[in-house]
Design a protein that fits this description.
By secondary structure, the chain is mostly beta strands. It is built from three helices and 29 strands.
């Protein structure tokens, strides 16, 4: 306390014992035992136990203990006490031997560590190492900076994991990302960005050269029925009630089915002019640029002129996308062909040819009979 003196009350250990008191005008009161200060009260009513520097720690009450000290607050019950202690590395600990430790605000328990070491937040009976219980939906929020927030909550029947606007959700194993839900709600497996921004599910695989088979670890998707029976592997629906196609599997084969029930159709009339339409087509042989393999079929935009429902997309179309560096890029949006859409015209053409042949045969037979 500088050069100021202090009023003291000292329990002396000198022969004869007794209490020694001194007084001055400093406004500081000290309680001593055996000439050593045990408690100090300064002129601002700050209290120091074990120290005369009552204001050094910015608190009305300062308790200064020796190295590796322990401070115990106990009640009449031998097991009902709180122990505060620190170690030489300045770590601070709280302990309550034989019971639970609770943290209370506004006279309401907020957190508890029970005798098993389980931590409960929002519950007084934690059943796991960390048990968070919320009366509302949001149970936990993780915040980094001002804009990155992750939340764990419930919707009354399940668990909800969420992030802030423009955030994404990652699942990792062995410190490597395995799956991501991006800010648009797209599910990405094996990639960190949607290859096609309108695709809700993207599964990317790097396949080495060779044939992909059921034993190839690079296979993107397995559809398996462990009961060894025929089953509907995938169903395609226009809405929740109308199926428009499905993929079925048996023990030996896979069937691809598109909706064609008569109850889905109206204004049904026989097809005419099938042969004329087929004769307009330009079937070609070609080589694929990507791997120099041979192919045969149609050029999409040429087929589109005569069978528009057999072709998807538009000629020379492009699309924009954002690459992994966040840069907007442009790439071709290629057309596709569904050859099954011309089966009806092919069938009509064969029937028309058959009718022509039958007519010609009848004429030949009539001529030969003369």
């Amino acid at each position: 306390m500088g050069s100021l003196m202090s009023s003291t009350i000292n329990a002396s250990t000198a022969s004869g014992g007794g209490v020694i008191t001194t007084a001055d005008a400093s406004g500081i009161l000290q309680l001593q035992t055996a000439g050593t200060t045990a408690l100090t009260i300064d002129a601002s009513q700050n209290v120091g136990i074990g120290t005369s520097s009552t204001a050094s720690y910015g608190s009305p009450l300062t308790v200064y203990l020796a190295a590796n000290p322990t401070l115990t607050i106990a009640s009449g019950n031998a097991n009902a006490y709180l122990r505060l202690y620190s170690t030489s590395d300045a770590s601070m600990y709280l302990a309550n031997t034989g019971g639970s430790m609770t943290m209370i605000t506004a006279n309401t328990e907020r957190m508890r560590i029970n005798s098993s070491g389980n931590v409960g937040i929002g519950t007084s009976s934690p059943s796991a190492l960390l048990h968070i219980q919320s009366s509302g939906n949001v149970a936990a929020t993780l915040v980094q900076g001002a804009t990155h927030t992750a939340k764990m909550s419930t919707d009354g029947g399940g668990v909800v994991l969420g992030t802030t606007t423009n955030g994404y959700l990652l699942l990792t194993t062995n410190s490597a990302e395995r799956m991501r839900i991006d800010s648009s709600g797209n599910l990405l497996v094996g990639t960190t960005s949607a290859i096609l921004t309108t695709a809700r599910l993207t599964v990317a695989t790097t396949v080495s050269a060779g044939i992909v088979s059921a034993t190839n670890s690079n296979t993107n998707l397995f559809c398996v029925n462990t009961n060894n029976t025929s089953w509907n592997a995938i169903s395609f629906r226009y809405n929740t009630s109308t199926e428009v196609g499905h993929i079925d599997c048996t023990s030996t084969a896979t069937t691809y089915t598109s909706g064609s029930d008569y109850r889905l159709k109206e204004s049904i009339t026989p097809m005419v002019g099938g042969l004329d339409k087929i004769m307009l087509l330009n079937p070609v042989d070609f080589i694929w640029k990507i791997n120099n393999s041979k192919g045969q079929g149609f050029i999409a935009h040429e087929l589109q002129e005569h069978f528009p429902d057999a072709v998807s997309g538009e000629k020379d179309a492009f699309e924009t996308y954002t690459d992994e560096d966040g840069i907007e890029q442009s790439r071709p949006k290629y057309q596709g062909v569904d050859p099954s859409k011309i089966v009806g015209a092919l069938t009509a053409a064969i029937q028309e040819l058959k009718a022509i042949i039958d007519t010609q045969n009848a004429r030949i037979e009539a001529l030969e009979a003369k």
